[in-house]
Amino acid sequence: MRDPVNGFDYPEDWVKKCSSPDLLPLVEKGLAVLTASGTVIRRGYTTGTTAAAACKAAILSLSGVVTSVRIKIPCGLVVEVPVIGFAGKASSKKFAGDYPDDVTAGIEFIAEALPLKDEIRFLPGDGIGRFSRDTPRFRKGEPAITAAPLACILISIQEAIDQQGLSGAQVKLYIPQGSEIAKKTLNTRIGVEGGISVLGTTGLVEPWDDHLEESICEQVVTSRNAVLTTGRTGLRYARLVYPDRDIVLIGGKIQEALNAARGQVILFGLPALIMRFINPHILDGTGFATIEEFAVSPAFHNTVTENLAAFKKEYPHIKIILINRDGAIIGESP
Questions:
Q1: Over the stretch 166-176, which tens digit does the pLDDT of each residue have?
Q2: Which of 152, 179, 204 is the last residue in one of the domains?
Q3: What span, in angstroms and rounded, lies between the C-alpha atoms of 9 and 73?
Q4: Which of 20, 148, 253, 311 has its CA 20 to 30 A from that of 196?
Q5: HSE of 49 in the Cβ direction (CA atoms, 13 Å)?
Q6: pTM to 2 decimals?
Q7: Residues 233 and 310 in one domain
């Protein structure tokens, strides 16, 4: 059995130990993960998937009641998302799966749609954060909606327009609890104010809790010359760069994965989680609020080189390779 989201082949003994065989179809569809102990843990939907569902449902509800919509999420899967839609207004609540620490769990996205002639207009409204300063990827004042979920939203809007036989539409999206929930996130640290971010590289929320630690470590222990990666961007490029090695998505479980690693291992990915793990105080005195901003400054190279060299002395069997979002190497341990 293979996970269609990350390509991991589940060992046969994991499948045999499954304590909930009736949930294995969810694993096969990518909507859940199977751990080494045989436990099945459900993935949730990202804010991006939830937003796309509300927007699509709002347009479809112009002609009647809508209770669910099919959304093609960024990882390529098609999922059925519950909604409530009628007369051009729709609501979708974020499903967090079995991720207990998701502060946006259950948050409601509301979209309102109007037909337009030969034009598509998407309006992010209240509760969606906006950047308070320029960053490497966003300009001040832009809504905090990253590229993958924005594309998903626009594709979903176009699908609904086509299904309704319209030539265009205006969709306004807002999140009533967005500004309040944002206080529980790290948005202010990355320069986002007034609401939450709309995110989701794959469209699914990974249940990275303590239940998955055994699964991650089992993958690392049983892998041959493992490449450990902290996120979806690293996962994508690691598969391209190391087609003959086992790629293991570890999320934030860096220490646990390193403890389990055997032989020569590569830690590969974007710099934020990795550099903060190596040196939690790396930004002190730099004047930068995030690793992403620091990474495009002239001082980044020397700072990272020093930190990677020190890390290599402690973990001589671990090679670190840092990349940017385009896959280019921006840092490498000796």
A1: 999 999 999 99
A2: 204
A3: 22
A4: 253
A5: 31
A6: 0.80
A7: yes
